[in-house]
């Protein structure tokens, strides 16, 4: 019974890892805390990547992390997560988790700051909608006109730390359960290998 639960948990962890987006890089220990320790990526579920509407640049929702500390007892990163307002969650609510040297630990987000950015784009708004239903027929008419729309992005920045050693490297993962695709939450992982 316990083996079954352990295998089921491992299978679920593999499934989540396979459905999210992980970006990674090998860096020198000397580069921890510098621009060379910066990773960027987008939240993803299966083959669906976080999207933006209209002609807004996709990097409006680009997320990033810089590995700032890989010590004996603690590993930290400066994390920036940009999300459409409707999916916004505090970083601490996005299941931050670290994996290093065969250990897994819940990460803690500290000193979180929030900024909001509005992007305008051209869309359409329905001005007239008429529907008619007869015994064996349906007739519908819809008239729309161009309209300016707003896409609001919430940017959250925090120092995210784990109580594990990151001497050989660390993977920091996030999962936003408010964004889903076929009941799979969108996820993102940052994976640093230290040399």
Distance between the termini: 40 Å
Order of helices and strands: HEEEEEEEEEEEE
- Let me know the largest β-sheet: 5 strands, mixed
* Count of DSSP H/I helices: 1
Number-wise, the strands total: 12
Averaged pLDDT: 87
At CATH's second level, what is the architecture? Sandwich
pLDDT below 50 for ≥5 consecutive residues: which ranges? Answer: 1-18
- Count of distinct structural domains: 1
CATH level 1 name = Mainly Beta
**Which strand order do you get reading across the main beta sheet?**
1-12-11-7-8
General form: elongated
Proportion of strand residues: over 45%
Protein described:
The protein has about 200 residues and is mainly β. It has a single domain, classed as Sandwich (Immunoglobulin-like), CATH 2.60.40.10. About 10% of the residues lie in helices and about 60% in strands. It has 1 helix and 12 strands; from the N terminus they run αββββββββββββ. The protein has a 5-stranded mixed β-sheet with strand order 1-12-11-7-8, covered by helices on one side. It starts with a helix and ends with a strand.
Brief characterization of the structure:
This protein has 195 residues and is mainly beta.
